[in-house]
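Supplementary Methods, section 5.1.

A reviewer requested that the exact input to the structure prediction be made available. We therefore reproduce it here, unchanged from the version used in the analyses.
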Amino acid sequence: MKKNEDNSMNIINRQISDGTFSSVYLIYGTEPYISKQYRDKLIDALIDKNDTMNFTVFKGDNLNTDEIAEIVTTLPFFAERRVILIEDSGFFKSGGDALADLVSDIPETSCLIFFESEVDKRNRLYKAVAKSGQALSFDTPDEKTLLVWVKRLFKEENLNIDDSAVYRLLECSEQDMNALYNNAEKVKCYCMEKGHVTSDDVSALCEDHIENKVFDMTDAISQHDKNKAISLYNDLIILNEAAMKILYLISRHYNILSQVKLMLDKNSSYSEIASVVKIPPFTVKKYVNQCRNYSYKELLKKADLCQETDYSIKSGAVPDKSAVEILIISLLN
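The structure derived from this sequence is encoded cell-by-cell as follows.
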C-alpha cells in the first residue's frame, strides 16, 4: 500500500481512538471503496447521522458558499459539534476561493468534511485544508496489499483460499475493490461447506471480463492452438461482443506485448514494466510468459496485422466478424 494512503488510514484511526479531531478534512483518491469506508467511519465517530439538526450534507457543484459558511459558523443544537459534509463540489478544481479563508478559522464546535473525486493540489482551497486540517488521499492498494486484504475476507469465514484463486479474483474484478468484495462474497457463500477456495471455484462464479477472454484467446494463439483460439472468438461473438471492440483489444494486447518484450530485453524489473506499460502488477508475469514465444519483430508484425485488419473493415473490403476471424488465423502463423 502506498505510504500516503497508509498514513491517511492511520490518521483517521488515531484521531478516532484519541477522540481528537481536526476541524476540516479533505478525503479523495482513486479508490472509492476505501475512501467511502473511511469517510463513513469518520462521520460515525463525529456524529449520529440521524441528527438532522447538526449533520448537513451538500452535494454537487454550484453550491452556495454563503450558505455553507453560515452553517459552519452556527453553534450546534444540543450537541458537541456540528458536522458538514460536502461531496463532489468541484471546489478543489475551481471556485473554492470563497471557502479558503473559512477553513482556516472554523469554530471548534464545527467540523467540515470535503469528499471529492477530483483534486488539484495547486488549488488555494486544497492548500488551506492541508495547512489547517487533513488532506487525506486514498488510492488503489498495490497487488501485495490486495492479496492480504482478500485473504483476510476469507479468513473471517474460516475459509482457506489458494493464491491462484486470489489472482483469479483480481483478474475478474479488474482490481476494482467494490467488484472484488462482491465477487468474494459470492465465492464465500459457494465454498462455505467445503471450507476451501480454488481458482476453478472463482472461474465458475465470477463473470470473466472481455479483456480476460481476449487474453486467453491470444494465449491460445501463442500456443498455436487454432481450434481453441477460434472457439474463444466465437464465444465472444455469441456473447454479443462487437467485432471491432474485440479487434481493438487484440491490437492493444499486441502493443502491450511489444512494450513488455522491449523492456525485458533491457532487463527491466516486473515493477518497472507494470509502471511504464500501465498494466496491473499481477498480470506482468502472464504477459512475460507470452512474450517468450515471440521476438520483438514478430510482435511488431502482429500489431501491424491488426492495423491492416482495422483498415480493411473501415474501408468496407471485408465484413468485421469475418475480418477478425481471418486476423486470428493469420496471427497463428
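The domain at 3-137 is CATH 3.40.50.300 (Rossmann fold). These observations are discussed further in the main text.
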